[in-house]
């Protein structure tokens, strides 16, 4: 305590005051403490100056470097935005493509839960978004139940399985069930992919093709059998009476003619379907073509004591196209009318033009066609009464040819008929160009036998093709 008092006396300059010679507050100790404090102060001062120098230097360089850094950041941000936009475009493209697919696509987890599906799958398999939250609903779906039966084999064998079935709307489906294997994890199984294809039209076309081949074979077999039989008969020429010889030769002539006509009709049908000789459109002389067809069939009509009445009110030119096909279309419906009209009957041919179309109608007072058969008669080889048709010598292709020809003209065929009241077939040709002075000229045939059955030209050959044809040739 005395040492502390001595230090205070020295600080306040008390006369005769001196520092103690030893202890913490001795002169030596205080000198060392002063030097230590001086060194500490010097250290912090140097440190402050160094910091101040670095700050000043950084500030002197930061203006240029900061601008470059900002430009770099801007470039990186722009590149990132472009990558994101490109990714969005790709995702949108993939999503649109996925939605636009005709085939149904469903992706499953291995536990049979659905990951995703597109709109076609929703329609074909009769599923909706509820299946994401209630997977048990899939067990009650007949299509999914069929698919799930293959899951175990797909997962274990890593093989694709194909299934054919029919959905609740009676559409034929072809279903492919395939494993989804990882490209980067040694073929690890990621899930199961199901592809559903609607093959209803393909199956229908295949059935039509088979039926067509069967019918063609039948049509060829009948005359060939007769020809073969009479050839065997004619081998005994010397022993046959003259009357039998003549009869045999007449039948051979009839049957070979029938074969020749059938082959010609099949070739014409093929030509029309494949647009062979589909030359540039030329003006068609409607009146001339109708007169030529009537002249070519007048002998057949006279053999049945029938009368053909014509009323043509058409200026030249009215329509453009293949004149040979126009001739064949009209001739076939006229020949049909002659064949199915009884003796002493009357057949009326009427042609007129209105503001939208040229119409050529053939009306007969023959046996007529039941309403249920109106559309079927235009199928290949279809006949209402096969026995009756075979007696008339018809091949069953004529009306199919008419329908195909009208589709090429962009027109249609209208049919009005009832049993016992005759039939009216009307060819409707849309006009390409007409003068302004043409006016509608309705015909009496337009009011005959009620509403027509119209076969639109929008049907393609595949849609209009059928196994048989009707009331025809």
Top keywords for this entry?
Heat Shock Protein 90, single chain, 473 residues, 3 domains, alpha+beta, Beta-Lactamase, disordered C terminus, six-stranded mixed β-sheet, 13 helices
Describe the overall structure.
Helices cover 49% and strands 17% of the residues. The chain is of the alpha+beta class. The chain folds into three domains: 1-100, no CATH class; 104-198, 2-Layer Sandwich (Beta-Lactamase), CATH 3.30.450; 280-464, Histidine kinase-like ATPase, C-terminal domain (Heat Shock Protein 90, 2-Layer Sandwich), CATH 3.30.565. The chain is elongated, with a radius of gyration of 49 Å. The chain starts with a helix and ends in a 9-residue tail after the last helix. Residues 386-390 and 433-473 have low confidence and may be disordered.
CATH fold-level assignment of the largest domain: Heat Shock Protein 90
Count of helical stretches: 13
- CATH superfamily annotation of the largest domain: Histidine kinase-like ATPase, C-terminal domain
Mean pLDDT: 77
Strand segment tally: 13
* Beta content: 15-25%
Helix content: 40-55%
Q: Tell me the distance between the termini.
A: 147 Å
CA radius of gyration is 49 Å
Structural class: alpha+beta
Question: What kind of oligomer do you see?
Answer: single chain
